């Protein structure tokens, strides 16, 4: 396997792995808060709203964004241009980190939303809107990374 090909494959693995780490951390934060919110509801003999589960799953999409970038980087690896390996590794590390941070902070915001929703029963759409803004960062990172990946694959086409 050529050097550039190997680095492109490593980049593909890195971007999805880093993105998934962020999702796991964000989901963990949101899940813990959601479980605590349900516990508060049970302790007060209030119904525990299943809609709080929405907050738990919010950071999962960042893994999908990493997977999309992984797929594109694997495509570049099939016929890399000279120097594509180093460029793809830098792109994967930076894009993966941006997506990871988005997932972590989205989980933190989701945790606050779950707690507030369980306590007040109000504001669900406001909480989702705030979470959506954080999601937008990951989407922007993915789209901008795609522009870079397309440049890496331009000579291969």
Q: What is this structure's SSE topology?
A:
Blueprint: H1 3-43, H2 53-57, H3 61-78, H4 84-120, H5 124-152
Helix pairs in contact: 1-3, 1-4, 3-4, 3-5, 4-5
Main attributes of the structure:
single chain; 83% helix; 0% strand; mainly alpha; 157 residues; Four Helix Bundle (Hemerythrin (Met), subunit A)
What does the model show?
The protein has 157 residues and is mainly α. The chain has a single domain (3-152), classed as lithium bound rotor ring of v- atpase (Four Helix Bundle (Hemerythrin (Met), subunit A), Up-down Bundle). Helix content is 83%, strand content 0%. The protein has helices at residues 3-43, 53-57, 61-78, 84-120, 124-152. Helix 1 runs parallel beside helix 4 (84-120) and helix 3 packs parallel to helix 5. It is elongated. The protein starts with a helix and ends in a 5-residue tail after the last helix. The model has no long low-confidence stretch (mean pLDDT 94).
